[in-house]
Amino acid sequence: FAMHAGRTRRTRTKGCGQQVEEHDLAGRNFECRGCQTRGRLDWLRCCCCCCCCPIWNWIRKSSWLNCVRLIIGSIPCCMKLEELPSHVLSRIFLRLDAESLAKLQLLDSRWNELAGSNELWRMMLSKRFHVQSVNNQHLKNTGTIEWKNVFSNWVSIRRMPSSPFSGQRYPVLGWNADTDVLIWLTIRPSEDCHVSSGHLNLRLIIQNVMAAPVTVESSRISFTMKDDGQPPAERAISDLGLYKSSCTGDVNPPQRAEYPILEVYDFIVYNCHVRAPPDVVLEPDALERFSEVLIPSREHNTKAERLYRCEFVESEIWKHYECLPGGFWVFT
């Protein structure tokens, strides 16, 4: 190989006084007698020389870890991002949010093809909403599903991520107006829609949809009442699970954390045992007395504090309660 000719060689003296030549290859010193080359060798070409080549013998006898180190050491560290293989870029894109992916599509034709691929957006849908499949007959009848359009539609209707304690089967009674951290408020109603033991069982679903990690301070979550003369409602907050997003499209099991850190598309579910006003009997009447939920948080990197507000929506409250003949109330 003429490309290696003329490169400098180093010599060192062994303990016995013998002079030997050294040639660096990915952090290791070799002299390939199979191809008689000198200097920094191209390990792939030297492996093709013959079975008597010392490099080939070292790879054949070494552990897989040493082989991986050799391969990684021979990769140029100055490789540009656009030179990476498509499957590597797709893995990187899965760690971004939807807004960043949309901006990447504006760079050039290759990035537009990669960032807009249907398979990538199918996995983004699973990562954002924590679903493994879409049971929608209308979408199935249309043939090929454009997952990016499905993603955009679900974002526009503020669809809740799915878990055993959240999802489309739980009616939403309130939400926030922010776009970086989304909050949904639901309730676990009693059988007869009456206030049970003077408390309401509310649930908060908090999801981070921005790239910066967020820490939720659950011990400082509070509920405020519409009547200014009343103090904030007494409450007990318990963690029902932290759901981490997956870059492989799988749904991860819930985790428990005292101080949860929400990465992009992670969400957490809190059960809130809140004391209702003492003079009400029905759940909808009690819910009308509440104004909003205050959720303190901070950005994990900058430690900047942020207060999110989730408002009770009165029209949504009465939409899900119905009085039947005979004075029986049901939750629909």
From TrEMBL:
Database matches in Pfam families: F-box-like
Q: Which superkingdom, per the lineage? A: Eukaryota
Q: Where is the F-box domain?
A: 78-124
Which protein, by its recorded name, is this?
F-box domain-containing protein
